[in-house]
Fold this protein.
Amino acid sequence: MTGIRLAPRDLLRLAVHGLAARPLRATLSALGIAIGIGAMLAVVGISASSREELRRQLDALGTNLLTIQPGTRFTGEAATLPEEAPTMVRRLPEVQAISSIGQLDGLHAYRHDRIPRIETGGIAVYAAWPDLPATLGGQIVAGRWLDAALLEFPVVVLGHRAAARLGMDAGSIGRQVWMGRRWVTVVGILAPLTLAASLDFGVFMGWPAAARHFDIDADITTLYVRALPSGVERVADLLAATANPASPSEVQVARPSDMLAAQAAADLAFTGLLVGLGGVALLVGGIGVVNTMVISVLERRAEIGLRRSQGATRRHIRVQFLSEAVVLSALGGFTGVLIGMAVTAVYARLQGWPVAVPAWAIGGGMSATLVIGALGGLYPAIRAARLAPTEALAAT
Amino acid sequence: MASHPELVCLRRLTRIHAGHFKALDEVDLSIGRDEFIAIVGPSGSGKTTLLNITGTLDRATSGEVRIDGLDVNRLDDDALSALRARRIGFVFQHFHLAPGVPALDNVADGMLYTGLPWRERRSRALQALRRVGLGDRLQHHPHQLSGGEKQRVAIARAVAREPALLLADEPTGALDTATGTQVMDLLGELHEAGTTVVVITHDAAVAARCQRQVRMRDGRIIGDTRQRPS
């Protein structure tokens, strides 16, 4: 005689009707869940979009760039790279391109000659070769780079942020900046250099021009090496010994893309914190569902009594209220997913990033709401089922 | 199913509520098939308790309850629910219709726990509403119906399952005399059609419409009379 089960469709209809009878209350408590899920999904989505953007940048720029810098000597004083280092490194078979820069000590760039010498604005001046942009994956936004024809002349190309500090833009090509001893002409401006962000504050001049016009014979500050993607590891292992065979320990080798990846990992830790905060919002939303359902059970005692008189078992009543809580929570979860995706899309668009909302986050968010609905509905449902039919009917 | 001559058989039925209040005190009552019976008494006489126990919504403190030969005391919650779903219909003083739900759905939902498929529930609900004379009110919501119409929807909901026993607790209590008379006419018709009807009332005029009157006071039966229908 036992075991009449309600069809899933009947159960869903019961749940939806039960909620629709008090639409405002259902909307508000679903909103609690929606805000929690929305916040968590937006955080995850924004972080994923930012990482997707980084991945694209690395794809475009390549992860095969290595840098070599002089370290410190055994005695603690600054080391230098041998002058032959570029030639030696170029001989490694996996090396595709190489370019060196040397900071011109004591030389700075100023808007004009009335600025006190100490106000350098953090701008450094480097000697460079024509192949630097190709090696770094850099772009020119205005004018031209220091090609072979310009190497010997007192002209400069500005890094992206140095140009901004000096008040130069695309229209400033041909204007002059003061270099402490003489005026030089600006011939080009670089786009931001993602893999060598410190150079964005740099001003570049040909190696021969530095020697001729400023009488500085600079040491190599950094050697940029572009290796075959398949040979990056091997090149990285050999670079120190190749660049300075006499004392390899005085050479620092780095891979800038690794630093970007490490930065992304740090972002990830911060994301974890924000997701935790979203989780707190979700918990509060879940308590809202419990509250709504408890009140609903109290108000609907007559309905419960009626259903019991029509042959509903305790299990039927329990399942009815449980599915109501799950539907309520799922409604909030679905809305929350939409909110989270919308926030991610808007934010990513504003940043110029690709929009990436991971499927696991959407799936996880929806599953979480189902679990919250089931847990939150459990206690009210058990209370509803325990109600004695006569007591329930006497409630009117 | 074995056919017992008595549909309801109560033996030495006692119900003591919380505290020491004796709502029923060793009541014996038999209700045969096809009876139309009124249980009459002032409030507090135990008639609603008697109805609830007969309808298996409440359990006796002691004594025996048999419905259709089944010993109710030996049945668990699932079995009792199934018994209610198949054999017993309830009509309440305050109708208990779901607000904002059309009459047809109110009646069809009354069969939710019978295991009948949706289509069958709808068609039975349609028949039941036509039977109580509300074939033109199918899509009306409870707030659009008069008191008498609401009670007829509630009666349709109770009889759509074709129960053997229809229990009505003050079915005319919330209605004026004329409407109450119509509702009693309807219950009379259902009885004619073969349903055993038990009506609880404190109204002598309503009781007089039934074939048999059981009088109660202080949890005891103090009178049991039969009359030929006039």
Q: What stands out?
A: The domain at 33-58+76-226 of chain B is CATH 3.40.50.300 (Rossmann fold). The longest strand of chain B covers residues 6-16. DSSP finds seven helices and ten strands in chain B.
